[in-house]
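hey so u asked for the seq, here:
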Amino acid sequence: MPNTWNPFELIARRWQPSAAFVRRAALATVVMSVVIVVTGGAVRLTQSGLGCSTWPKCTPDSLTPTSAMGINGLIEFGNRLLTYVLCAFIGVFIIAARARAPRRRSLTRLGWAMFWIVMGNAVWGGIVVLTGLNPYLVAAHFLLTTALLTVSVLAWRRAAEGDEEPRDLVARPVRQLAGLLVLATGVLTVVGTVVTGAGPHAGDAKKVHRIPVDWHEITQLHVDFVYIVVGLSVALWFTLRAVKAPAAPRRMMLELFGCILLQGVIGYIQYFAGLPEIVVGLHMLVSTLVWICVLRIHLALRDRGPVPAGEGETAAPGTEVPAPAAEPAGATGTAGAAAPQPAAGASASSR
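ran it, structure tokens below
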């Protein structure tokens, strides 16, 4: 018997969102996750990390910034307010996913995962302020935001596919190469937080503790991982072409190359120009786009069937059902072949 006091149940009785609306709601959480990364970077780059001297209030005596705190207080407090906007977008996604029939628990679970990451990161951000911008805590603060972006991208993808068991669209070694690209990009992001923690942009005009490593050496390590990511991307691109992978992941590879090229240009400009704040901010923005591209490519190499049709729908609108590009688990074949053929050194298997 349905729970008449459950607000989600009441909404579901009166509103049936389309599959397209759920996908757009998921995409909105991705966009807001990127925005929160960029605005968090703006707080650091404008030396507004301690614009609000305490937490959860802005000052010991005021919830909001005072005129004496100037622009730094407004920037820090504005970033805190964006947390509520982000929660609102996540809330819309959770409600839409819950209201749509048939109910897909995988989507609502991802929505709640986003919500709790935001709540945890908000508390963590308060600890960052109370500890005077400890660089290790600041790095973890950014990585938690990256985790939010990861879950939101996964929700966006899951909203556009069904709930069948994952079926590989390419041979397993190809998916493993894509997974290695994800891993290398993740390590690149972690090393980037160390570069930030050791670099000159401490987040506040006062003397702030920095990570005690040579900034130039850790920057060189960061660049080394950039070359690794570029090399893996090129290798994956040629591999996808060789196995005749579906068009979608190959198109996403071109998007990734565009982001990597732009990031490379920005990286060299900021290094030789002495790390100007606006260029560093652009570097943070494009880093989120690179991460999104890498995740999307990895997720596009498997299929989970079409989006389940809602009540009164004959087919899930806008669902992309990729053409088979690999043989079923346990068989060998060339990805994208029209009929089973012997493969040359590759086997396809389910994840």
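Residues 63 and 303 are 49 Å apart (CA to CA). Confidence is low (pLDDT under 50) at residues 315-351.
lmk if thats what u needed
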